[in-house]
Design brief:
It is a single chain. The chain is of the alpha/beta class. It has one domain: Rossmann fold (3-Layer(aba) Sandwich), CATH 3.40.50. It is 33% helix and 28% strand. The protein contains eight helices and eleven strands. The strands form two sheets. A six-stranded mixed beta sheet has the order 7-8-9-4-10-11, with helices on both faces. Strands 1, 2, 3, 5 and 6 form a five-stranded antiparallel beta sheet that branches. Strand 10 and strand 11 form a beta hairpin. The protein is globular and about 50 Å long.
Length: 236
């Protein structure tokens, strides 16, 4: 049996992506290791964020896009083409969480922000929801800071706290893969360092794919690195 360092979680084969007539990704062939942090870097507009959106099929929410090639993900011990009609989209997105560049807390309480994905999959058991929210906030080291403020608006938190809240919301479903698009770009150095430490902890239970252009950050957190230029990937 392969070790985690050898096991592939995500694999693409001749992946091409178009927005209208413009080609954004060009014959991408990569393998991303399980339980590791893979960092994607490169110039603005080179296709980094698009690559993340391919991995959870978020691109399908946008018009005039098309894709060719294969995107495979290890699910229940076997590699599965994620665009296969047999793959349930909501199930895929439960396995593949995403955190965006700007913290985006919902206009609701801290508790309800984290619980929201559970509501979407129709979890009704209040005890289960409470335990899941508590666990997610603990995982991002936010529980002690907000345990007496759970019914306050999530938007009242500081920038770093908001980003950890968004991480907790992504983690509440216990995803196998976590996609992060420039997760520290809007944070001060202290908050960014806290997020980096958290990402290093999370890889024990999750495969992380991070878009970043901060060279020092890449050096600190990356187990695997790809540079994207004009939609083409190269391993560093």
């Amino acid at each position: 049996m392969k070790t985690d360092s050898q096991r592939t979680k995500i694999r693409t084969r001749d992946l091409c992506f178009f927005h209208g007539r413009r080609q954004v990704l060009d014959r991408v062939n990569v393998e991303l290791a399980a339980n590791r942090i893979t960092v994607i870097t490169g110039p603005s507009g080179s296709g980094k964020s698009t690559f993340l959106m391919v991995l959870n099929r978020l691109w399908e929410e946008y018009g005039r896009c098309s894709l060719s090639g294969r995107v495979e993900m290890e699910m229940d011990g076997r590699m599965v083409e994620i665009h296969d009609p047999a793959v349930d989209l909501s199930g895929l997105r439960r396995r593949v969480g995403m955190v965006f560049q700007q913290p985006n807390p919902l206009p609701m309480s801290i508790f309800r922000n984290v619980a929201f994905p559970l509501k979407l999959i129709h979890v009704r058991d209040r005890d289960r929801i409470r335990r899941a929210v508590h666990s997610a906030l603990e995982r991002v080291h936010l529980w002690q800071e907000v345990k007496d403020r759970l019914h306050e608006d999530g938007r009242s938190l500081s920038g770093g706290q908001q980003q950890r809240l968004c991480l907790a919301r992504a983690l509440v479903l216990r995803p196998e893969v976590l996609l992060l698009d420039e997760p520290t770009s809007s944070l001060d150095p202290a908050a960014a360092a806290a997020i980096e430490e958290l990402l290093l902890e999370l890889k024990s239970t999750c495969t992380l794919v991070v878009v970043s252009h901060y060279h020092d950050q890449i050096r600190r957190i990356a187990d695997q690195r790809f540079t994207v230029v004009n939609g083409r990937f190269s391993a560093d």
